[in-house]
Each structure stands twice: as C-alpha cells, then as structure tokens.
Automatic annotation (TrEMBL):
Keywords in alphabetical order: DNA-binding
Residue stretches making up the HTH cro/C1-type domain: 6-60
Gene Ontology MF terms: DNA binding
Name this polypeptide is given: HTH cro/C1-type domain-containing protein
Pfam family, one: HTH_3
Amino acid sequence: MKRNNLVSARKSKGWTQDELAARVDISRAYLSNIERGVYSPSLKVAQRLSSILGLSTDTLFFNDNARLSS
C-alpha cells in the first residue's frame, strides 16, 4: 500500500527523498521503498519519521483519509 500521507507530509515540507532520508539517517532507496509500500518501516524508523515530520505514526502510516496541512 502506497504511503500517501508520508509522501504528502514530505512534500509539504518541501523536502526531497534525499533530504528526508538524511534527516532520518536512512538511505533514499529505503525511504522510496517505504513510500511506495514495498517495505514497512521498523518501529524506530517510523518514530523518527513521525517526529521529524511532526505527525503521529497513525497519521503517517495508517490513516488514509487524514488531511495534512501544507
């Protein structure tokens, strides 16, 4: 399942995959695979993404109907 909220949150910050991956300390390829739904992030990575993007893990990964502010 594609992680639309994760992609939207990243883009709302104006960050590329490279920039977000560097902030989270993961590879761009791994982030891309998470965004495309190929991989699910570990709990540690999900928490770092959540913290950096300022959204709950539920919003980023489980709530397909969440409205993200720009």
